[in-house]
Structure to design on (582 residues):
């Protein structure tokens, strides 16, 4: 009993440690500017929406969010289209090369981004795609496709083969068996994969920073360029960070089951 | 095996003269090929090209001077004090953040082990740092720790606990602060991986130990820890590789400074390549980082195999 109380107390303290800095940022966006710069800093203030008004005035928030959505959504779709069938093939193939390909995908996920970025930048420059959000989708897709293939490989492997074999004997075509039988059975794996793709691409700024231009930059790059500019306060930055952080945190909290399951599955 | 064969041959006679096994092979190949081709074309091809660039003196600002120099870029790096500093920073950063994350993560995982409502809610909320944009994580801590008006940094400086310039602006504390940020961001992930390992432990073995009157410590040392080794190794591998590639949080908070006190390999490579357009040198740095990551990955995979063999007797 005493032990249990101590355990819960420890967990509550841990929660405070992991949540307070985030709440601080959230709070900053509702502070009037003079409260942010007050010396000494204090906790009490009258909430205001001024910072959000400032952020909307200074930044074209709509177009930033659209770019972020195009990059995250585009790379998610393309990675699923490429990665899910590959994961299926790796799980079902008995050829020794299949294991090698699975390891190859895992290795690609571990490559330091910079190593690929510089040659990729020059490649995009040569084919004239620099400055477009599509180039960011293309490079995000390399890492995401490798990740999705690896993760779906684990999901399909835990699915009994007999299910498809029965469909095949019933006269289903190979693709039909995959599409109608196997795919619906790993729905949760697909949701988890999609979630991770969106998370990776939405949170990336290194690729986007060097590959996009003004009209195609996502919200993460805007945050970086805003920070350090003289006329932008922490409040405005906090408001802008809301647009970038709150959607993704909410999605993960809502789809929390798939997030945890996907991580566990990707591990085993 | 025989059963599947007969099923396959039956299906084969139904459709076409090509045997089922062959069609199956082609089908699976066709399913895997687009992804493999894509990753090779847009992932492996640039990497190989990067290796090629590293053998050139190649600066985008001085294109006329581009010429083949062999391994000169690598030799110059070995003599480069900034580069050696970057390696040292990266290694210190990786060792300390991963070690602390593992210990702290294990304690949290043990506390979250029992499956009740309180723990489920805790686990969900604790994962928030993992999902926040790493860039925003950097901004949060920059804002909190600023010495002039940061909610925490101001008092730390006022009370004389830190240098008046603040944690990020002092060479002796900047790297430690970055390690702290990494711990904040990624300990929850380590805790989750280890929790998954704990939940997969055989319950009957732990019960038997309890029936035999083993102390909690003895059970932990002789049963929990050895069986947890694969999960621990996995957390260790993932985090070591990610910490070694650290970029976002450093770039946003200190940009490698003050001086070169927080310059990591990735930050150094990005600065050389995409700020100074020194493609040859930047490629050489990236390739060394790539080699290090590969060595780390291979070592850990071999160790995981070794522990797996020990645990499963295979």
């Amino acid at each position: 009993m005493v032990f249990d109380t101590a355990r819960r107390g420890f967990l509550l303290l841990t929660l405070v440690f992991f949540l307070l800095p985030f709440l601080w940022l959230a709070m900053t966006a509702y502070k009037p500017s003079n409260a942010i710069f007050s010396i000494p800093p204090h906790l009490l203030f009258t909430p205001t929406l001024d910072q959000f008004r400032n952020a909307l005035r200074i930044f074209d928030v709509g177009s930033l969010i659209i770019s972020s959505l195009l990059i995250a959504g585009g790379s998610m779709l393309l990675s699923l289209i490429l990665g899910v069938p590959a994961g299926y093939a790796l799980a079902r193939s008995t050829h020794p090369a299949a294991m090698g390909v699975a390891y190859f995908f895992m290795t690609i996920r571990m490559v330091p981004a910079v190593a690929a970025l510089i040659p990729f930048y020059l490649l995009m420059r040569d084919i004239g795609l620099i400055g477009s959000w599509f180039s960011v989708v293309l490079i995000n897709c390399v890492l995401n496709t490798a990740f999705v293939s690896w993760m779906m490989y684990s999901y399909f492997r835990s699915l009994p083969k007999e299910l498809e074999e029965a469909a095949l004997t019933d006269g289903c075509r190979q693709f039909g068996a995959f599409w109608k039988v196997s795919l619906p059975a790993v729905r949760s794996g697909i949701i988890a994969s999609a979630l991770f793709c969106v998370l990776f691409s939405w949170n990336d700024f290194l690729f986007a920073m060097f590959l996009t231009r003004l009209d195609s930059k996502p919200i993460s790059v805007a945050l970086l360029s805003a920070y350090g500019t003289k006329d932008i306060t922490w409040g405005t930055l906090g408001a802008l960070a809301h647009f970038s952080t709150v959607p993704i945190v909410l999605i993960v909290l809502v789809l929390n089951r798939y997030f945890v399951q996907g991580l566990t599955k990707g591990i085993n | 095996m025989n059963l599947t064969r007969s099923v396959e041959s039956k299906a084969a006679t139904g459709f076409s003269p090509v045997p089922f096994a062959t069609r199956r092979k082609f089908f699976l190949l066709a399913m895997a090929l687009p992804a493999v081709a894509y990753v090779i074309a847009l992932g492996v091809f640039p990497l190989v090209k990067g290796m090629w660039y590293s053998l050139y003196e190649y600066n985008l600002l001085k294109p006329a001077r581009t010429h083949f120099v062999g391994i000169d870029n690598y030799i110059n790096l070995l003599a480069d004090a900034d580069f050696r500093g970057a390696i040292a920073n990266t290694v210190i950063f990786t060792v300390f953040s991963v070690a602390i994350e593992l210990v702290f993560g294990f304690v949290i995982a043990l506390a979250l082990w029992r499956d009740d409502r309180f723990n489920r809610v805790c686990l969900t909320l604790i994962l928030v740092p993992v999902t926040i944009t790493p860039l925003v994580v950097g901004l949060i801590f920059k804002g909190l720790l600023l010495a002039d008006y940061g909610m925490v940094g101001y008092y730390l400086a006022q009370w004389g606990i830190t240098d008046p310039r603040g944690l990020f602006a002092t060479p002796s504390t900047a790297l430690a602060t970055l390690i702290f940020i990494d711990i904040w961001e990624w300990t929850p992930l380590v805790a989750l991986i280890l929790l998954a390992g704990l939940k997969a432990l055989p319950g009957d073995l732990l019960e038997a130990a309890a029936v035999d009157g083993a102390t909690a410590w003895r059970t932990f040392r002789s049963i929990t820890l050895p069986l947890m080794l694969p999960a621990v190794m996995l957390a260790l591998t993932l985090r070591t590789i990610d910490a070694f590639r650290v970029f976002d949080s450093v770039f946003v908070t200190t940009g490698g400074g003050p001086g070169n006190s927080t310059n990591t390999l990735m930050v150094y490579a990005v600065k050389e390549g995409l700020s100074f357009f020194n493609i040859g040198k930047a490629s050489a740095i990236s390739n060394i980082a790539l080699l290090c990551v590969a060595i780390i990955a291979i070592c850990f995979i071999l160790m995981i195999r070794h522990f797996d063999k020990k645990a499963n007797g295979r």
Observations:
- Chain A has 14 helices and no strands.
- The mean pLDDT of chain A is 87.
- Chain A touches chain B through 92 residues (CB under 8 Å).
